[in-house]
Amino acid sequence: MSRLNTNKLSLAYGTRRIVNELNLSVPDGKITALVGSNGSGKSTILKSMARILSPQSGAVYLDGKEIHRQPTKEVAKQLAILPQNPTSPDGLTVRELVSFGRYPHQKGFGSLKPEDLRMVEWALEATGMSAFADRPVDQLSGGQRQRAWIAMAVAQGTEVLLLDEPTTFLDMAHQIEVMMLLEKLNKEQKRTIIMVVHDLNHAARYAQHMVALKQGTVLYEGNPVEVMTPEMLRVVFGIDADVIPDPRTGTPMCLPYGLAHEGLEEEATGAAGIASENKQRTQEAEPVGAVG
C-alpha cells in the first residue's frame, strides 16, 4: 500500500487538460522517477501532489486523506517539495535558507526552538553543507546551491520529498553530486523520493521505480529493467535506441541513435490499452485512499 496515491486525477491549465484520470501509487521508501517528453505532465503531477495545483477532478491522497482538503501546514509536515530553479534573496546564508524548512513546525512568527535548531544542523550535516552554513547562497557553485535547497527540504523532517528536475542546468559532476545525495537520503533515512528527471540514464541508475508518461497518461510503470526498453523509448520519446546493462551497476542504459517515426501511433495505442487494463486492475484491487 502507498502513503501517496492519486485516484482518477485530472489536471488542467484553464481549459487545456494536461492529465486525464491518473491512477498512480508511489512506492513507500523508494526513489520514483517520472519520465516523459516535454509537456507530458510530469511537473504538473508533482505540483498537484504537493498541493500547489488543484485537481480539475479526482484527488490526491496522503495517508488516505484528500491532500487538497488538508491545511497547508499539516501537509508541509508530511511532504516537502523542491520546485524547478528556486531563488533566494541576495545575501541569505545557507543556514538561514535551511531554517525556512522549519516554518511548518512553528506557531505564528515565533523564533526557532531547540528542536528546530537541531534539525537545521542535522540537515546541513546530512547534505554535506555544514562547512558552507555561513556562506551566502548566491556565492555557491551550482551543485552546492542545489544541495542547500535540498537541505532546506530535508529540514522539514518529512518522510516524502518531491523534486522537480533537481539537476537542471547543472554540469555533469554536479548532477552526479545531487543524485548521489538523493540516493544517500533514500538508503540511509528511508525517504520516499519522487523526482522529475530528464536524464533517462540517471533515472534508471538511481530510481527503483520508473513511471513513463505521454500526454498525461501512464504508459509504462515498474522497476527500471521493466520500463527502460527500446519499445518505451520509441513510444514515449520517439527515438530509436538500444538498451544495454550499465557495465558497473547493471542498470539499463539508453544509447539513442536517431528518431523513430514508423509505427509510433500503433504502438502508442497498444501501450495505452495496456495502461488502461492496468488502471482497471488497480482500481479493483486497491480501495481509494487506502492507508499504507
Outline the structure in words.
GO terms for molecular function: ATP binding; ATP hydrolysis activity. Residues 268-292 are annotated as: Disordered. Helix 4 (114-126) runs antiparallel to helix 5 (142-155). The longest helix is centred in the last third of the chain and has 22 residues, at 264-285. The radius of gyration is 19 Å and the shape is globular. It has helices at residues 42-49, 72-76, 94-99, 114-126, 142-155, 172-189, 200-206, 224-227, 230-237, 264-285, and strands spanning 4-13, 16-26, 31-35, 57-62, 65-66, 79-82, 160-164, 192-196, 209-214, 217-222, 239-245, 252-259. The model is unreliable at 281-292 (pLDDT under 50). The strands form 3 sheets. Strands 6-7-8-3-9-10 form a 6-stranded mixed beta sheet, with helices on both faces. A 4-stranded antiparallel beta sheet has the order 2-1-4-5, with helices on both faces. The protein has a two-stranded antiparallel sheet with strand order 11-12. Helices cover 36% and strands 26% of the residues.
